[in-house]
Design a protein that fits this description.
The complex is a heterodimer of chains A (540) and B (417). Chain A is mainly alpha-helical and 540 residues long. Chain A contains 20 helices and nine strands. Chain B has 417 residues and is an alpha/beta fold. In chain B, the strands form three sheets. A seven-stranded mixed beta sheet of chain B has the order 7-6-8-9-10-14-15, with helices on both faces. Chain B has a five-stranded parallel beta sheet with strand order 2-1-3-4-5, with helices on both faces. A three-stranded antiparallel beta sheet of chain B has the order 11-12-13, covered by helices on one side. Classes of the chains: A mainly alpha (540), B alpha/beta (417). The interface between A and B is large, with 61 and 61 residues.
């Protein structure tokens, strides 16, 4: 502990010395005082920008900058600037004294321009942080800076840096600034370094070097131009790879959503032959159950809020399964074998369910938040962001498919369901309780729709109309996959998702949707049975 | 509790039905009927329900102060259910069957276009409270929302300014229908006039209710590698939620690529986790966060009303621009009626020009003498973590509407009625 403290002190001393070295005029960097902070509260935009830049060079200003970026800085009536997290207790950053926030204090508001300046200033202070991760983030932030006056700062940081990863990031930031160097060899080296990153952020700067204006090249040296052109080609190749991988991921993500939405329908429509127009509303109920569970967690278990989704899954399954079974017992079972009447009755039910939800929860959408572990994403290939919520949903979809497969193929209920699908009367004769199995199977299909509703609530809107957007897509997937075929549903969903996402960049979202519909019409003309036609004697 | 609510709604519904069947049953001579034509079900219910409620609140307020010319206002609420042809039918019912003196209603441009012929034929009076694409001027309509030069053009100018980030490239992203298409046509012409080339403008459209913005966000990211980029979003309705969610997850921050939206306000942000959206922008003529006595009174009135009437989610009730425009519209109509001493449509239209009202937006707004549009101030706000807006730019005062955009060829000399 003590050794660490000494090390930190030593490091600070070293730092102060390093900072003092190049600029002898300003022997010691200024500490944060109220005179430095005053322009933040009272000045015009330029004065505020200057103040932020000055804070970036002052030691110990990190907390002030962070507070300004987080809307936690207040201007007291006496002109002082105070930090307050909750608007009650305040801290004077100059003296470090705690006090209560004086009445009449106004929060300092910032705009994007100031926010950018704050990020840059924070990056300069954090370049010498003890935490390697912070140094890395700071170096990455400074890669975007085009301000050559930062070059000496980077040189100092580079001289002090021992971490390989941070060094690499710093070198890139340095190279970006060295593009403006007088020395052609330095420029050339910088261009080559930037090209190696494959980072699209440098594309426009490199492209500017190869551009011609008024007959003269922006870059006088042909060797550097050539290197820039090569670097550009390299970046473009990398971009193409990212785009391709991105489309693949987006397709898988869209496919997994289609799959989840259609899987319940694959059971109720595919296996049981019920045209259930209220399927979309079962999705919607699943999403609303998620909302209710979230509200309950917020009220009673705020510490566990991040795991409300896990609790919402069984709740949504049970609620929608019960709703589904009630529907089956009261309405649908009287209409077996009469598809047109089923269609009309379930359509009516869907309207009733929507209006019921509207009366209970209001016509407005409700807010369902992502748990923190499902927000954000990981960056792969240096530019492609895979968002966590989509990754989780892809995994979840595969899990549900596996579950359904096990249920249908390795349980007694599954055996009965398949028996009834193949020959209802024969199954009845050998003692399968068809009525009960119908109810359970319909409940299973509805319950899976509820699970899908939980997943959908993490991606889009939760409102009474949620189901409307998915009902057509769900039927499309089931019909395309082949009625009564689980594997067909999976392949159709992933295929539709993939085709849609590979078409979209070229044709646009509207045309992609139309093209998909046209393709399906053509396909069903050719193969009315879908991808996997049931074969053999079971076909009735 | 739930049952009582249901009962209340049942009685309300049957009362409504009764009043529809017997138009003169209790419409004694001491009331003036006022039509409210907003979707209470279907996709647009999200936005329009609160406009119906704010209209009812304003009518209550006027009635509590003694009504108009000593007569109480009697609201007639109909539900066109987000169904464009039904809008026309309901408008006809309001005008010819209920004989309302004035109608407050519509949100989407397509619904307005569908009721226009009815209002012209029956010489009715419509107050339209939402910002729109312009290119229209009807004798029977007063537009209390913004024309493009009162919202879209200032927003783009701000994005190009140093404070707004000095954007050089623009993605025009919208839902595929008349409002975004027309607005983007105007914006493209405007950007050309500022020297922005076609290769620096990308126009992207999505269907209504689009939910998968992965490819579009990836494309914006790619487009932004070509230089400082800003996104101008005319996405309408609840598609905004998945768009902003995707934007947040992809790590596209407002400091890198700011998004300015024309159809996103406080009400729309209620359904979104706003933390990743901090710094993205919206342009309107009113924000709830504007500080002045008129606005404080307006917000208090609305919150009290929402609580008293037990509206859904009353605890988080917010005000927004179209609600303010509805409020102004009803009050201005009242003033015009009192000045004309009649509810006759032609006399009221003649009296509307020049009406002034101390609006919650902090100015005394005025109805233009000739072009049926309000003179309105323009505000640009950045989204704050609490779903409100931090105003970063505003005009010095109200500006006059140009319903016929000067950036569309052939519009010269069309400014009057």
């Amino acid at each position: 502990m003590r050794i660490a403290a000494i090390a930190v002190t030593l490091r600070h001393l070293l730092l102060a010395w390093l900072l003092a070295m190049p600029a002898l005029a300003s022997a010691a960097a200024p500490r944060v005082d109220q005179a430095m902070l005053a322009p933040l509260a009272a000045g015009d935009t330029q004065a505020r920008l200057d103040a932020i830049a000055a804070l970036g060079a002052a030691p110990g200003a990190e907390t002030v900058l962070q507070a300004l970026g987080g809307d936690q800085l207040y201007a007291a009536p006496d002109g002082r600037v105070l930090i307050s997290e909750d608007g009650i207790l305040a801290l004077d950053p100059a003296t470090g004294r705690q006090e209560s926030l004086p009445p009449g204090s106004e929060g300092l508001s910032i705009n994007n321009r100031l926010r950018r300046a704050i990020e840059a200033a924070l990056a300069t202070t954090r370049l010498f942080s003890d935490d390697a991760a912070q140094r890395l983030a700071a170096a990455r932030r400074l890669q975007q800076s085009g301000d050559p006056s930062r070059l000496p700062l980077l040189d100092r940081a580079l001289a002090a840096e021992r971490n390989e990863e941070v060094r690499a990031a710093l070198e890139i930031a340095q190279a970006n600034l060295e593009l403006k160097s007088e020395d052609a060899a330095v420029r050339r080296h910088a261009v080559e370094l930037l090209g190696k990153t494959g980072n699209a952020a440098f594309r426009s700067t490199l492209a500017a070097l190869t551009a011609q204006r008024d007959g003269a090249y922006a870059e006088p040296d042909p060797g550097v131009r050539e290197a820039a052109a090569a670097a550009l080609r390299r970046i473009d190749r990398h971009l193409a790879t990212i785009e391709w991988a991105g489309n693949l991921f987006y397709g898988a993500s869209l496919g997994s959503i289609l799959l989840l939405a259609a899987l319940g329908l694959a059971i109720t429509f595919g296996l049981m032959g019920v045209i259930n127009m209220a399927h979309g509303e079962l999705l919607m109920i699943g999403a609303y159950v998620t909302y209710v569970v979230q509200t309950l967690f917020r009220a009673w278990l705020p510490g566990w809020l991040d795991w409300y989704v896990a609790a919402a899954l069984p709740a949504a399954f049970v609620v929608t399964a019960l709703v589904g079974m009630a529907l089956e017992r009261t309405v649908i079972r009287w209409l077996y074998g009469r598809p047109l009447e089923t269609l009309l009755a379930t359509w009516g039910i869907s309207l009733i369910l929507m209006q019921a939800v509207r009366s209970l929860f209001g016509a407005q959408n409700v807010e369902v938040g992502n748990p923190s572990w499902m927000s954000g994403g990981i960056t792969v290939l240096g530019g492609l962001v895979l968002s966590y919520n989509r990754l989780v949903i892809i995994g979840f979809a595969l899990f549900v498919v596996f579950l359904v497969w096990v249920l249908l193929n390795h349980t007694r209920l599954g055996l009965f369901v398949r028996a009834i699908t193949q020959n209802r009367r024969m199954a009845d004769c050998v003692g399968v309780p068809t009525g009960r199995v119908d109810m359970l199977a319909f409940g299973l299909g509805s319950g899976i729709a509820g699970l899908a509703g939980v997943a959908l609530s993490q991606l889009g809107n939760v409102g009474p109309d949620l189901g409307r957007g998915y009902i057509v897509d769900s039927f499309m997937v089931v019909v395309l996959g082949g009625v009564g075929q689980l594997a067909g549903t999976v392949i159709a969903a992933l295929g539709l998702g993939g085709i849609n996402k590979f078409l979209e960049p070229y044709a646009g979202a509207v045309m992609a949707k139309i093209t998909i519909l046209a393709l399906i019409v053509l396909f069903v003309q050719k193969r009315p049975q879908g991808l996997f036609a049931p074969r053999g004697r079971s076909v009735e | 509790m739930k049952r009582r609510l249901a009962l209340k709604q049942l009685t309300a519904a049957s009362l409504l039905a009764l009043s529809g069947w017997m138009p003169h049953a209790h419409a004694a001579e001491d009331t003036i009927k006022v039509g409210i034509l907003h979707s209470l079900s279907g996709t647009m219910a999200i936005s329009e329900t609160s406009l119906k409620d704010v209209a009812l609140m304003t009518i209550d307020e006027i009635n509590a102060q003694g009504g108009v010319m000593g007569k109480k206002l009697e609201p007639v609420v109909v539900d066109p259910a987000s169904n464009w042809p039904l809008f026309a039918e309901k408008a006809r019912q309001l005008l010819s069957q209920d004989k309302v003196a004035v109608v407050f209603g519509c949100w989407t441009s397509v619904s307005r276009k569908s009721v226009l012929p009815v209002f012209k034929e029956l010489n009715g009076l419509l107050f339209y409270p939402v910002q729109y694409e312009g290119e229209e001027l009807e004798k029977n309509v007063f537009y209390t929302g913004a024309a493009p030069n009162q919202q879209a053009i200032p927003a783009v100018e701000y994005l190009m300014s140093e404070d707004g980030g000095g954007a050089k490239r623009f993605v025009l992203l919208g839902t595929d229908y008349v409002y975004p298409r027309t607005t983007n046509k105007i914006l493209r012409a405007f950007l050309h006039s500022k020297g922005v080339k076609d290769e620096d403008i990308q126009e992207v459209y999505t269907p209504f209710g689009h939910a998968d913005y992965q490819t579009i966000v990836a494309n914006i990211k790619k487009f932004a590698t070509g230089g400082k980029t800003a996104v101008i979003s005319t996405i309408n309705g609840d598609s905004n939620v998945p768009f902003y969610k995707e934007l947040g997850n992809a790590g596209l921050k407002a400091t890198d690529v700011p998004v300015v939206a024309f159809s996103v306000g406080e009400e729309e942000l209620r359904g979104v986790d706003t933390k990743p959206l901090v710094g993205h922008l919206a342009a309107w003529n009113y924000f709830e966060s504007i500080k002045n006595p008129a606005n404080a009174a307006f917000i208090k009135k609305w919150k009290d009303y929402a609580r008293a009437k037990n509206l859904p989610n009353a605890s988080t009730a917010v005000t927004n621009d179209p609600m303010e425009a509805t409020y102004i519209g009803i009050h201005m109509w009242k003033q015009a009626v009192e000045q004309a001493k009649s509810t006759d449509v032609d006399k009221v239209i003649a009296a509307m020009g020049g009406q002034k009202f101390n609006a919650p937006d902090g100015f005394t707004v005025e109805m233009d003498k000739t072009n049926h549009h309000l003179h309105k101030p323009v505000y640009i706000g950045e989204i704050k973590p609490d779903g409100q807006f931090n105003i970063v730019w505003k005009t010095k005062g109200p500006i006059r509407a140009q319903p016929w955009s000067p950036y569309i060829p052939g519009n010269e000399g069309k400014q009057g009625l």
